[in-house]
């Protein structure tokens, strides 16, 4: 792979979309060709799976079914969009990726890490992000931001304890391989968040 693969992660309302726009402007200012995408989603088929995942429904959603649908979308996205872009030399900036699966389906829903790892290896092979920006925030503050912005989806309707587990799941990933992450305190004013992102980004150029 020639391009760099960068992902942005965090719990609800942490400011991923806001800061992806900022990261985009900094990468493009360097003249680097960039593809911006998201998970679940990023292709027409994977976006259909995303809609199924986010839609509120009466039928209880089985956690393993959720996990397998996320990896089905990921396989489609990786093989038809992400890998070809990296091979062309584009950088890829992705709103969430497999860290979210460890955090939401693993820590949040309680599915085993070894099962997720098996799927990760099978779907991704050796491909892992070059750098992951983890925007970290007090869960309650993030949820308030998310609530003020739009109607809540199926995930956002979870209890606060779920999001506390998700946050802890992300931080556990960082503890395992700290060099892969840039952890940014997303509870700061936006200009301070973006100063911190800029420092980490400079190291990638
Ligand atoms: N999911 C999963 O379970 N497993 C997986 O493997 C994957 C995903 C890949 C959809 O993700 C769901 O998929 C997600 C987990 C699950 N759960 N949910 N929900 P998503 O990324 O599309 O959904 P999201 O987390 O809700 O992201 P979002 O809606 O795009 O929010 P955001 O990008 O983090 O926030 P934002 O829109 O940039 O900012 C929120 C508000 O805060 C907005 O009004 C901003 O102006 C404001 N903001 C931002 N920064 C600041 C600062 N610093 N100060 C004050 N206000 C701020």
How would you characterize this protein structure?
The chain has 205 residues and is an alpha/beta fold. It has helices at residues 16-29, 44-54, 63-87, 98-108, 113-124, 139-149, 160-176, 190-202; strands spanning 5-10, 34-38, 91-95, 131-136, 181-185. The chain has one domain (5-204): P-loop containing nucleotide triphosphate hydrolases (Rossmann fold, 3-Layer(aba) Sandwich). Strands 2-3-1-4-5 form a five-stranded parallel beta sheet, sandwiched between helices. Helix 2 (44-54) runs antiparallel to helix 3 (63-87), helix 3 packs parallel to helix 5 and helix 4 packs across helix 7. Bound molecules: ligand Z5A. Ligand Z5A binds at residues 10, 12-18, 39-40, 70, 95-96, 100-101, 104-105, 145-146, 149, 153, 155-156, 186, 189-190, 193.
Shape: globular
What small molecules are bound in this structure? ligand Z5A
The CATH topology turns out to be Rossmann fold
Number of domains: 1
Strand order in space, largest sheet: 2-3-1-4-5
CATH architecture: 3-Layer(aba) Sandwich
Query: What is the string of helix and strand elements?
Result: EHEHHEHHEHHEH
Q: By helix and strand content, what is the structural category? A: alpha/beta
Task: Tell me the number of strands.
Answer: 5
Q: Tell me, what is the CATH class?
A: Alpha Beta
**Average pLDDT, all residues:** 96
Rg estimate, integer Å: 16 Å
**Can you summarize the main beta sheet?**
5 strands, parallel
Beta-strand percent range: 5-15%
Question: How helical, in percent, are the residues?
Answer: 55-70%
Q: Kindly report how far apart the N and C termini lie.
A: 16 Å
Number of helices: 8
**Unreliable stretches covering 5 or more consecutive residues:** none
């Amino acid at each position: 792979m020639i391009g760099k693969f960068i992902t942005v992660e965090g719990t609800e309302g942490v400011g991923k979309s806001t800061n992806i726009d900022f990261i985009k402007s900094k990468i493009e200012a360097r003249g680097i060709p960039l593809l911006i995408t998201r998970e679940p989603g990023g292709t027409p088929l994977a976006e259909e799976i995303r809609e199924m995942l986010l839609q509120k429904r009466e039928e209880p959603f089985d956690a393993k079914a959720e996990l397998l649908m996320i990896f089905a979308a990921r396989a489609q996205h990786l093989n038809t969009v992400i890998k070809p872009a990296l091979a062309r030399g584009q950088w890829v900036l992705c709103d969430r990726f497999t860290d979210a699966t460890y955090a939401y389906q693993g820590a949040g829903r309680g599915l085993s890490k070894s099962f997720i790892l098996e799927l990760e290896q099978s779907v991704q092979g050796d491909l892992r992000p070059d750098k992951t920006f983890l925007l970290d925030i007090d869960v309650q503050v993030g949820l308030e931001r998310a609530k003020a912005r739009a109607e809540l989806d199926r995930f956002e309707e979870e209890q606060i304890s779920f999001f506390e587990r998700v946050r802890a799941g992300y931080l556990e990933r960082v503890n395992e391989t700290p060099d892969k992450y840039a952890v940014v305190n997303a509870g700061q004013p936006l200009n301070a968040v973006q100063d911190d992102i800029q420092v980490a980004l400079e190291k990638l150029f």
